[in-house]
Amino acid sequence: MYRVKKASSLLSFLKEKTGLSGRGIKKALENGGCHVNGKLERFGATSLKVGDAVTFRVPKEHNKEPFKILYQDNDLTFFNKPSGEGSTPLQGHYLVHRLDKGTSGVLLMARTLPMKKELEALFKKREVKKTYIALIKGTPRKEGGTIRSFLTKKGSFHGQTLYGSAPHGQEAVTHWKVLKKMKGITLVELHPETGRTHQLRVHLKEMGHPILGDLQYGREETFPIEIDRLSLHAYRLSFIHPKTGKRIQVTAPLPLLFKPQQVV
């Protein structure tokens, strides 16, 4: 049970207390999962006053946590997000950043609102070091380099927004290097300096080496092997912990797909 300490709407109150999305909360309300002062309440717009007692039952689908915990303390949790799962906050957590649905790997969530704000500030100031691993089509002529461009919305494909380079876009910077060359495929390490939507996918596509399994930016490509997912993995996050002042580094093990013997 939760006790209201500040007047607000039921939806806002439950968002703060549970960390669930508005959609998830509304679904729970519709399914009879909430009572205010012992009375069933189905509307998120309901006004709460100081002293009200709120009970809330988390929907079953939100109780399931398919994300394995890589590291957790009192302030934050690092999850290993599977490919195919959306970046949605789990119970008691607040989303700090996002991974594309097809991307697997390290996803960071805050356990308190103050920590959420501090972590978001670190991302905004580019103080979070991000490492990704990808399988790309073809073999780059160089062993590594830096891609700089300005990205903006450029259209859509099957209802999903597509991004591309344009003079009026937002700056996007990606550092990359080759890890292993195979027949028609290259394993690369990526370090995005900025965090633009679809940045890595767009940069590799515009470099002439789209990520294997990318059905949006590689839809016109014929890939050397059949892959049923986007071959992009958020391998590592590293930053100075806002509370401890010490560097924290968390790695998500590489799925078999990214191990050379699986794709040769």
Would you give an account of this structure?
There is one protein chain. This protein is of the alpha+beta class and 264 residues long. It is 17% helix and 38% strand. It contains 6 helices and 17 strands. It has helices at residues 10-18, 22-30, 60-63, 113-124, 199-206, 260-263, and strands at 2-3, 8-9, 34-36, 39-40, 47-48, 53-56, 68-72, 76-81, 94-95, 104-110, 129-137, 144-157, 160-165, 170-182, 185-192, 232-240, 247-251. Strands 7, 8, 9, 10, 11, 12, 13, 14, 15, 16 and 17 form an 11-stranded mixed beta sheet that branches. A 4-stranded antiparallel beta sheet has the order 1-6-3-4, with no helix packed on it. Strands 2-5 form a two-stranded antiparallel ribbon. Strand 16 and strand 17 form a beta hairpin. The protein is elongated, with a radius of gyration of 21 Å. The termini are far apart.
What is the compact description of this entry?
With about 260 residues, this protein is an alpha+beta fold. The protein contains six helices and 17 strands. The model has no long low-confidence stretch (mean pLDDT about 90).
Measured distance between first and last alpha carbons: 55 Å
Which parts are unreliable, with pLDDT below 50 for 5 consecutive residues or more? none
- Cα-atom radius of gyration: 21 Å
Oligomer: single chain
What's the pLDDT, averaged over the residues? 89
Strand-pairing-aware structural class: alpha+beta
How many helices? The count is 6
Tally the beta strands.
17
Q: Which outline best applies?
A: elongated
Main beta-sheet annotation: 11 strands, mixed
Beta strand %: 35-45%
Taken in chain order, the helices and strands follow as EEHHEEEEHEEEEHEEEEEHEEH
